[in-house]
Design brief:
two-stranded antiparallel ribbon; about 220 residues; about 25% strand; Rossmann fold; 7-stranded mixed β-sheet; 6 helices; 9 strands; alpha/beta
């Protein structure tokens, strides 16, 4: 007998963490996708020091959790692996869309997507395939996944496409970062590319500078 693969769709409980309260004055919501082996609540702490006035930050959590070291201790999350990747992508795009729907935002509220590391590919795919329009897409220490067309992103982002890398990123050396920059600039997509001093993480100073540029602080 042969092994046959079957798939079913089931309800699943997902969670997100929120920085700030959504009120009548809320004009902007940022959906911030964490990196590989992070948790959404800890990821959101990188944004805590900033007073963003009428902006609320939502950190959804990857749908796959696992123990980082062995069979106990620290629990972390991931957005996907190479196994059943297409279904995982569909699941998290539906999840992110549904999370925004349940926020019950005013039609005038702007939505931006931010993705760090693995979360950058998640955010980029979501923007490309979502039912929503986006004010900004911010990729932090992340690249566009090969399975999406950059031109599609350009048509879905109304204002700004921001890409940021540290000059001492342990996953991308400076030569790779400059090559990524050159490739994207040659794609004729309007974007801003920033190289800051630092490693593979989000730092307060370049984040604050970005928020100021986007009129969020």
């Amino acid at each position: 007998m042969s092994i046959i693969k079957k798939q079913i769709t089931i309800p699943k409980t997902a969670r997100y963490f929120q920085l700030g309260e959504i009120t009548e004055q809320t004009s902007h919501v940022i959906i911030a996708c964490h990196g590989y082996a992070q948790m959404a609540n800890y990821f959101l702490k990188w944004f805590e020091p900033f007073n963003l006035k009428n902006t609320v930050i939502i950190a959804p959590e990857g749908l796959s959790r696992f123990y980082w070291n062995g069979f106990s201790g620290k629990v972390v999350a991931s957005w996907m692996t190479k196994e059943d990747r297409e279904e995982d992508i569909k699941d998290y795009i539906n999840y992110l869309d549904e999370a925004v729907i349940q926020l019950n935002l005013k039609p005038s509220t702007k939505i931006s997507a931010l993705g760090f590391s693995q979360g950058g590919a998640t955010a980029a795919r979501w923007v490309a395939q979502s039912k929503f329009e986006f004010e900004n897409l911010i990729l932090w220490a992340a690249v566009f996944p090969e399975d999406i067309q950059i031109e599609t992103i350009g048509s879905k982002v109304q204002s700004s496409l921001e890409i940021l890398f540290g000059d001492n990123d342990q996953f991308y050396d400076l030569n790779q970062v400059n090559l990524i920059k050159e490739t994207l600039i040659n794609s004729n997509i309007k974007l801003n590319f920033d190289i800051f001093k630092g490693e593979h993480r989000i730092y307060p100073e370049p984040l604050n500078n970005l928020f100021k540029k986007l009129n969020l602080s």
